[in-house]
Structures
1.
Amino acid sequence: MTSAASARSRSFWAWGYEDKFPDDAARRALAEQVSAVLGVACMPRALPSFSNLRLPVPRVGAPASLAALASVDPRDRALHTYGRSYRDVVRAFRLDFATAPDLVLAPRTDDDVADALAWAEEEKVCIVPFGGGTSVVGGVECPLPSGFRGVASLDLTAMDRVLAVDAVSRAALVQAGATGPVLEEQLAAHGLTLRHFPQSFELSTVGGWIATRAGGHYATLLTHIDDFVESIRMVTPRGVWESRRLPASGAGPSPDRLALGSEGILGVITQAWLRVVPRPRFRASVSVYYATFAEGAEACRAIAQAGLYPSNCRLLDAREALLHGVPSDGKNVLLLAFESADHPLAPWMERALALATAHGGACSSPPVYADEGETARANETATSWRRAFFDAPYLQSALVTLGVLADTFETACTWDKFPALHKQVKRAVLDALGRECGGGVVTCRFTHVYPDGPAPYYTFVGAAREGHELEQWAAIKKAASDALSACGATITHHHAVGRTHRPWYDRERPDPFALALRAAKKAVDPMAVLNPGVLVDP
Amino acid sequence: MTSAASARSRSFWAWGYEDKFPDDAARRALAEQVSAVLGVACMPRALPSFSNLRLPVPRVGAPASLAALASVDPRDRALHTYGRSYRDVVRAFRLDFATAPDLVLAPRTDDDVADALAWAEEEKVCIVPFGGGTSVVGGVECPLPSGFRGVASLDLTAMDRVLAVDAVSRAALVQAGATGPVLEEQLAAHGLTLRHFPQSFELSTVGGWIATRAGGHYATLLTHIDDFVESIRMVTPRGVWESRRLPASGAGPSPDRLALGSEGILGVITQAWLRVVPRPRFRASVSVYYATFAEGAEACRAIAQAGLYPSNCRLLDAREALLHGVPSDGKNVLLLAFESADHPLAPWMERALALATAHGGACSSPPVYADEGETARANETATSWRRAFFDAPYLQSALVTLGVLADTFETACTWDKFPALHKQVKRAVLDALGRECGGGVVTCRFTHVYPDGPAPYYTFVGAAREGHELEQWAAIKKAASDALSACGATITHHHAVGRTHRPWYDRERPDPFALALRAAKKAVDPMAVLNPGVLVDP
């Protein structure tokens, strides 16, 4: 078997596909740029070679009944060892794969999943559900817990079909292993689209999005995958958890909302009905510039509270704009856009722009409107942004090879708390960068905005000291997370909890909710085989 | 002590306030109308007298430590025996209060709630959280379960204050016992409003709305109280469950979403931060008429899928219109409206109206636009509708006194399933009315519409046989609920589950979710004192 995830040339250590990884010339150019920014000479290091990789000997093997689904191929095991956080890429770059799963199982049906779970319970093997492997929070890395004999990665990507489309209700039944492009290609055949574009879109899967409450394309209103879910089918060790397909219900607490964000601890999501839409026919976009981030934030608040629901409303500080190749002339820039499959957008855009300029914003050019047949026309700034957005994770991996420590973290808070949070978080991270890296850069953007608050997203960059990257990173991450927690913000708006965010998650969630969630897990996963260590302790 | 709920003259047997109950002349006029519709002579019966009421002797009493919160006053106990379903009103009309709680506790603080729970655990007393007492699904009626010594109703209405307002983030911290009017009066002092107007608005409470996932004012987008909740504070027997105040989060499954719809089985909701808005400054409304309900439904689908988000988009069939005093000339009527505190609404209304007429709709007059200072101007149809909407529950109680069986039920389904569901549900209920009542009437409206489906709401009316009302009702309710279930619709879109909907809820929710929910309850309410019999068995 070759698991579906490895069928294309995924890098065994870096983000994404090998053929998209920056080549030597690009890495040298990047090194020059970053050296200039950090004031430290960054040099490209040699890339790791798969032939030098040594994996631990498997502790368990698949039984004959699961042999057809199983792989112990070293590349498969390596590809399923980590997500793609900074920590993960650093360790993989070092060829440290100490926590490699013993085997990879690639189910093709729900029965395969159930069989895998039954075997895991019997043989005391942990099961780690695995979609695109793009977790940046240690969601798929499972050190062997005591009482267990081994760890199996359960790769869902062979289950990637759109099984049914209901064009009347605008919904599609999708298998959980479909990646963004695989899903969109199948929906496009029906003239439909999900329009959920997380930064991991190229690799991440429907099941992963649901399990981690992924954030997506729309900056307002339908921000999380939660909002697109009509029903979920999840295979648990104690049977199939399948909700009825409904536009809404008031029948008790929502079963879907307990599966959403369950991060593989309650069951393996295998299918979902998702709400889809026709491709947009009308688009409107504009860039608005602000002298201060605070002014831009106030504009975002006004727009978010106006009931206009732009598809894009992303505020980038000047450095963030630079980082993403968005021309901003040293200013903060708000990317504002609307889209619709139903109606021209001038009244929406005009009102939003009036609010944007009323709060100190200025436009260098009027909004660009693209109607049907004109989709080629687009705001150039928005296009630069989009390209840079999807390339950013490749860049992060490349920076690791230059000895640069670069990572992101994100949160959400109410508007009243944002000014203090922004100040304290930036100070905490800059202080930590100073201590750990001798200095560095922090940038910020809003990825999503709500009537009651923004979701700020921070990027930090500093010089790494070879061999000490993980300690440096841990100190900075702790400083950032402590600051978020102290300000009453959430430890994650859409990156999930995994193993990395556990300490701050444990402070954030209500204690009785933790009791309830642990009990719920025990009820459906009594042997605790599913992704142990995530969200709750056994 | 007199509990807050009884401080105003609530009827001990009928819906709402005594002074709003239809007087004898109104009942005679109603009897004439209904007699004409049903073809059966309906006569007003004598109203029940409180002085004839005999309650069971209390099985337990409050300890000295809770004496200041406790009442065994017969009127208090009577007022806390039932909700206000047809079944409840019939039994109360008969002076059957066999399941009266032994006492009523009216906490003033979270500590009072915690004390009540601790006492209940120690003394084996069930606690039934009680807000407005408007449940129509047996949510607050608690027959003594085996192993318990008594039942206490926990009336939250003394905790009814707005504790804080954050005008920047547009949110308010509200105690759970605030009724709709009490809440809105306090918010109005800040120029703010929640705009959540369930039919029970006059009496029901914030905590009740959250515990039952109440549906409200907006016909699209923000349909349930769920959408207004920023955080919840709930006192459980194992500590305080309080979520962080956040506009959004991706940190594990949402604690709020497990509290929402928990119907008093996990804890007692005592406070919530709710998202509020300024009062609308702009309004637009119009009525559109359709020859068939199916045409109107297609128009609703088009509008719901267009991304316009009208505040009202309620389709009434001809009889439903008649019932609510909405002039429709025998046609189906769509009440379409927009509101905004930010912008004039012509572009929104024009596009929605274009969709409405493209699907066979006709207007007798153009949309009415009311801008700031013109709030007095309003679409007359919408005004009639609103008045009749809030009076309907009084009418239902009055009908009981005429020997008329009248009730409502509601659901939601995807658009593809609606035509078959509508046909089968109407047939099932008409057949049952024929068998049980010798005929009757069924009407339908959409209370809310979603991109992927409507929430149809049915009203049925037939002649009751004195002394057999409950059996007649049960047979009709079963026919309706079985039809909903067979069609894959939900047993409730916003009326909740309570004890009445349990059999159909048990078919609807995923089995492993029931295991999880039962375990969650056991973790936070190990003695099972909270509202036993609702949602899960111990």
2.
Amino acid sequence: MNIVLLSGGSGKRLWPLSNDIRSKQFIKIFKTPEGDYESMVQRVYRQIRKIDGNATVTIATSKTQVSAIHNQLGEHVGISVEPCRRDTFPAIALATAYLHDVQGVREEEAVVVCPVDPYVNEDYFAALKELGQLAEKGNANLVLMGVEPTYPSEKYGYIIPTDKEQVSRVSTFKEKPDVKTAEEYIRCGALWNGGVFAYKLKYVLDKAHELLDFTDYQDLFGKYDTLEKISFDYAVVEKEENIEVMRFAGEWKDLGTWNTLTEAMEEASIGKTILNDQCENVHVINELDVPVLCMGLKDVVVSASPEGILVSDKEQSSYIKPYVDEIDQQIMFAEKSWGSFRVLDVEDESMTIKVTLNAGHQMNYHSHERRDEVWTVISGKGRSIVDGMEQPVQEGDVVTMQAGCRHTLIADTELKVIEVQLGKEISVHDKKKYELEQ
Amino acid sequence: MNIVLLSGGSGKRLWPLSNDIRSKQFIKIFKTPEGDYESMVQRVYRQIRKIDGNATVTIATSKTQVSAIHNQLGEHVGISVEPCRRDTFPAIALATAYLHDVQGVREEEAVVVCPVDPYVNEDYFAALKELGQLAEKGNANLVLMGVEPTYPSEKYGYIIPTDKEQVSRVSTFKEKPDVKTAEEYIRCGALWNGGVFAYKLKYVLDKAHELLDFTDYQDLFGKYDTLEKISFDYAVVEKEENIEVMRFAGEWKDLGTWNTLTEAMEEASIGKTILNDQCENVHVINELDVPVLCMGLKDVVVSASPEGILVSDKEQSSYIKPYVDEIDQQIMFAEKSWGSFRVLDVEDESMTIKVTLNAGHQMNYHSHERRDEVWTVISGKGRSIVDGMEQPVQEGDVVTMQAGCRHTLIADTELKVIEVQLGKEISVHDKKKYELEQ
């Protein structure tokens, strides 16, 4: 099975765990069979691997997510990197060209496309495999998955099949309806459109060449920022006559809000938390090192991270976005390809952060114009390079850097340092990168 | 007026703002006429000063509170320091001896004793003044304040006066009753016992000499730890025949729980907070630098500090103590006589803290056996002394100290440093103090 997972952008609906640089699919909140916690993307990847150990998994995503994906899924997962956001048609065209030109997938092979963030069981991935087989059979150019509705939702688009068979021709598509219209659709056998479909690689590659002017993957990648923003539904699906839908009746949840997300949590709380017996339907996710104590709450979600604290009635949590949009705060925590950082203290003319470098990784070689820095190594072994001079560093070593001097840290083992930044205008934008002459 | 304020011990009922080393009376949550925030002790002190600018205010408290009191009330407030906790009779005896022997208060002058933490208005302090005048008149050995009950509370002891006059003889005292009994008491004109009383200094000094074996204040202070724990009520009040009570009908609140405390807050929130319109009867106190967002909550109190986060139904918040007792966590923030510290990061073999030294103050000259330390000065000017060697320090300077070496910091202006502690067994107990040879 060739499967393309669409990994969407950052979102604020799960603040304070998701923010401008941390997407919800990377938050570790699902208990694994081994008792650890995994993220949405890890869960989906593990489930696919279990159903089809040979599946070629490609994640279509933006540059900003590449390091998070490598951190969570390892270095070997395929990634089709979108140089910028251009909606789903360019993204799927690019991923398809990547499969063909980089991964060597043949034109007659099926490709299954699905979002990275549904909360589903293994039967869902078995259905995806079937969907691919149907596409390969070639009765239709596109085979969609239609989810059997469990209630007349206003949140989804609907697919109207021509009959009630397991696999049917598609009669028409309907936009998100009101509840009454949704009820009518469902009476007529309509299905939710979960954004999942399969096609023979050649089909989308041809469409791409028809609609976009490019020679191969590298060429398309290079001119990606010139492409028009257009959805795959609009550019392809709605114009295609030869199209089928396969019914799926298993569990399928869209975890877009705290309310729906907590429904998928196996435990009432993650992290240092205490809930008294008078709490009812309360979920707590605490990423901080200090405890959260909840008493006598009902239908409430509490989430605490280095970015902030949310305490919300579960239903109200769907309306979070405008409030988070108003919060104007620097990023306090981030995971990067090379490790992570956390802001520990902010003063007018200083900032203290903790930097963790993964073993074998290093910072960019860089300088700042308007701030000095001091590193105190708190654990691990590595090397510092300051203005070309390399020195071994380990726990307890201190490195001071004046503004203007070029510097980097190389981690031989996992390396943790406390970095104190000192200056009048401390900003993430005050950074020049250099090539390291080694 | 000579007034003794009894400042009680640490409490956990207002966790995470109060803890083992930070008592509720020092939390700044009341809006001042100028728009700043003040603590219970600051509010009471300001109110007394307003009613009687010449009042001699003495705070009877333990050693651990002395620096907090000086920080909040200045260096000139009188403090009768209890070397250890020995209940209210020894405390009041010590404070009375302190007034006589140290402050030079004459034996015929009245002393008014009251707890430091009632939430009251200025009429209360006007009543205290009257109480003192009654004591000086000498119709009775003790004059109590009786608070007119507003409901049949089970939380307070009751005073039964002989009649319904403004000032009456006391007929008897009653322990905390159940609601029904309380209703009966109130029908008979009973008053709440708020623990407030006045006497001529000589009266308690004589009682003290009668019950305790000591010569003067210094002697009593020196043998304080040998005294029996006994309450003033038990040792004196309940045995005294010649006793009056004065009625007080003004506002009087006991702010012992989050529920009652939030009733006294003028605003719904303090600190970085966002409450949506669907919140009802919600109070938030946020001491962290990151925002707290509350949505759709009802009758809830949220409090966040470096120690942890409480989210509680207001009524349930009265039952907090056993849950906080279970939390086993190091102190993350403290205010000291010399300034404050906050723990920023804890790892297995390192701890990073931010130390703020007030101008003119310094640390003890000390050493650690099992940890190295690194200071990075982030603001201010001062001097470091390391193994006898004094050096000026300012923003950006780094001082490294090996285990065993003696060190201190002296703040000429307010001085802030990031201190990284490195070692296998970091503990507050690993500290030797030395005299500084200067």
3.
Amino acid sequence: MTTNEKIAALRAAAKAAGADGVMLVTSDPHSSEYLPEHYCSLNWFSGFTGENSTLIVTAAGSALWSDGRFYIQADRQLAGTEIESMHAGAAGVPTVEQYLKDHLKAGQTMLTDGGCMPAALFERYGAALAEVGAALRSRDVVSPLWADARPALPDTPCFLLSREQTGANADEKLAAVRAELKKAGATALAVTQLDCVGWLLNLRAHDLPCTPLAIAYAFVTMDRCVLFLADGRLDPDDATVLKNNGVELRGYGELLDFVAALDCDETVLVEKDSTNYDLYAALQANPHLTVKSGADPITALKGVKNEVELANLKECHIRDGVAMVRFQMDLEQALAEGRPLREADIDTMLHRRRAEQPGFDEESFTTIAAYGPNAAMMHYTARPGADSAIEPHGFLLVDCGGQYDCGTTDITRTYPVGPLTDNERRYYTWTLQCHIDIARAQWLDYCTGFALDSFARGPLWQHQINYRCGTGHGVGFMGNVHEGPQSLRPRNEIVFVPGMTITDEPGVYETDEVGIRIENELVCVDRGENQYGRWLGFEPMTYVPIAVEPVLADELSRAQIDWINGYHKLVYDTLAPRLTEEERAWLAQKTAPIGR
Amino acid sequence: MTTNEKIAALRAAAKAAGADGVMLVTSDPHSSEYLPEHYCSLNWFSGFTGENSTLIVTAAGSALWSDGRFYIQADRQLAGTEIESMHAGAAGVPTVEQYLKDHLKAGQTMLTDGGCMPAALFERYGAALAEVGAALRSRDVVSPLWADARPALPDTPCFLLSREQTGANADEKLAAVRAELKKAGATALAVTQLDCVGWLLNLRAHDLPCTPLAIAYAFVTMDRCVLFLADGRLDPDDATVLKNNGVELRGYGELLDFVAALDCDETVLVEKDSTNYDLYAALQANPHLTVKSGADPITALKGVKNEVELANLKECHIRDGVAMVRFQMDLEQALAEGRPLREADIDTMLHRRRAEQPGFDEESFTTIAAYGPNAAMMHYTARPGADSAIEPHGFLLVDCGGQYDCGTTDITRTYPVGPLTDNERRYYTWTLQCHIDIARAQWLDYCTGFALDSFARGPLWQHQINYRCGTGHGVGFMGNVHEGPQSLRPRNEIVFVPGMTITDEPGVYETDEVGIRIENELVCVDRGENQYGRWLGFEPMTYVPIAVEPVLADELSRAQIDWINGYHKLVYDTLAPRLTEEERAWLAQKTAPIGR
């Protein structure tokens, strides 16, 4: 089927259902960041392979919205189809809401799969349509049309993490969640995000790319916890463990019926931004249930790592550090030998070294290896056959991470691979200053992510350079590489507390010239209390040398130089016991103090 | 009358009015920061001379709440009276609300002068009393008891500022206010704060200490503006000017009757935190009026200085800088000659030099001259006879400012008056780093006072030192030395825009050891737009050398050293043309570059 035929099929399906159009969004029932292919219907119907998109098909036409990262790709992939390419946010381009209002009229109906759209978004589009007297109705017209070609829902083997890995059993976590529900004035919680289900029940699988989670829901009340998971995915021993932790098991598809049949009065806390509309509607429809809108308390609980998780993360980062050291030695050797290297080779080289480490499972996201100007594209992915050669000058940016049996990592280094321009040195130095200023920040315990984010940007702002993204994000524990609620980002209102982990990844992205990013993970630590209050700071969790050859040391303050030297001593002392003599000698050079 | 007799009189007056108690707060009808003595009833009845206080008298007893600055003073001044001294905010001390609930019961009534209490506060106390079935009623029982001893309401001559001074006539300002009212969905505004009335109509007088404002109200609708001002205070020419700007004149006391008699439908914008309860109640009582709660738009308009005001402020700061240079030369000479100096002498020395300057009117606040450990008390005032001698070691902190015919100034310098301890040098250096980091900050135009405040504290936070106050506040134009809405302060949500002025005054306050503060005024300026957005920064408005002898230059970054050298060059170049040769030579020394 061609794209136009697929769109025509959607149009016909809408008509057959008595409706006037269909809309598809990049989403799954769990608001996952990376979707299983089973849910990539928008990509299949449109031929567009990017993320974060919306497709609208009406009798009059069809249109697809892409964000700034994907404008060019969308134009190219939609060329020759009937689908209009909409650059979301660009001047003169209607929003999805505006388009809906312009193309539907009173009495008409749009269809969408409410099981794959967050309730808040469903209500927003529904409200836009209501303004012109039209309506949005939940109906899955996609599945019948896609049936043959559609990838199956993943059902990889599930497994439970031990208390030695996570520091808390499911019953302890359930107790913590129930305490939060009580504070929020609720008696029940629909747990819909896969990382939240995974954290709550220490449940993992390999259903998603790069993310060891299982497709499942949980429903928690003050005396019950029901896990909705496809049959046969848990081995009997794990099922017994869960049962002993007070967890009942139901089939994955039984959630809506279960919710409809609940006959105890409950106040159900629902996070409308992540709960799919069909589930939300089912909760609303049951007269025994009062739906209370609010943040899923698991997100906040999960964001603060406990002592056991932190100890495991340390081990995880040591292993990752050893792999990164060996990768860098391989890279330097290849460059020294003049071996032709392409961006796509980097992932292979990295994977080899990570795979040598005990407990390594898979990459925590698709490796970004971007040479020269390619690195200015923040979300660049080198594809074999369409990647660049690494030339013997400028920078190679490598952003990567691993999933281990003791945690998840995320790291970026920007390697000089030959002579540098003055601008490259300057940008690198200012980026490093930003990185250091966050890493060595110390603050009173009322500071939000917004306040700390401003600290971070100071050195680049002095030169009227900014990066159009947050300075950092939380990282899951054997989970999503991006998680909240904390983040170093303008307007983030979350107050930092000890145990939160965060990436520190400022950068410079000069179009067609250069991209630089230096990223460590940090953990927020308590620095004690005095007459002024409670002091907090960060400690590095990443143990990998940061290239100092590009640094204009004169631009650094004494405190910044002290930080880099102290950090490098920490890296050497931590990794040395795991390295060979040759590797130790190499690392000693890379971590030698700089200064004036 | 003794204090106890006065309290007994209040108690009897309550009883005579059929009520069960009286409460007084430090406030006037205009929510002024510095009160005319006419409104200092709390001080007169209690004998307590501090600020920001509450007095409650019931049949069972009486109590006075003071804040942390005044605990000791209140204990001393209330000793021997029946009034219980309450340390507001201290552990175990009931709040005013709790005390009201503990001491009143169902059916009982407290009285307060609602003309001297903001509506929001009146409602808060009323709500607390309502919880126990009691009530708060507005009634002035103070005036009859205080009549003989009470200072008269000030009625100094009023005058109008010219367009050359303010950059905008009253009719232009009225147009701007009406545009804001429209945006806020209102048609009328009760202008109650004296600086807002003064800004709106370019009206000034000398009714308040250190603040050239007139006691007056204004009431603005879309086609009227009424000024309520005591008869005979404006000369006929000025009255004509106002009339030509569309301003009607009424007696100061006619406001409540005017409001009651309004018979056009209006939506009146009211800032409940600053509008007194009696006025608020009168607005509520008129069925033609809809009261809409919101910020007085004049505060935001006034906070952004126009080009003319900025040009005048520059001249004002040059004059103030010349006075400060001459004062410092006088000080150094006195110290060199070994003349005995006391803190209270400083104000005299400063006044002499400021008074030599053209257009000088009065101090903009009571000079703070604090030697050594006295400076650790943030609100210390040296009183002749109870002040300290300035010894030939350590620091002298001088915080002062002037009202001129071209603006208002606020400046702090901390002078080394002899050998310093290592701690003194360190604290001074870190304070200077904080000062510089704000002064040289550059940021994208979404940053709030909170975000910038965190920049400022970084260097002191590195050493786990904080100052328990904002980093800076707005300054009026021939008005209040403290004004909003912008401020450098945790949680301040106001976004900076060009034309806002702000003080930059970080400090170290180590009890019984030392107090250090370095304060300039800054103006927010536009630094142009590029691909990342609109850049903003600050420029110094204050032209006075900052002592560099105490600085540990090694602690400063190159950028910080560059800033201090650049600032000192600006000071020299700006002041030199107004100085004698001897003064220029002195200033050249004081502003000589430092470096490494």
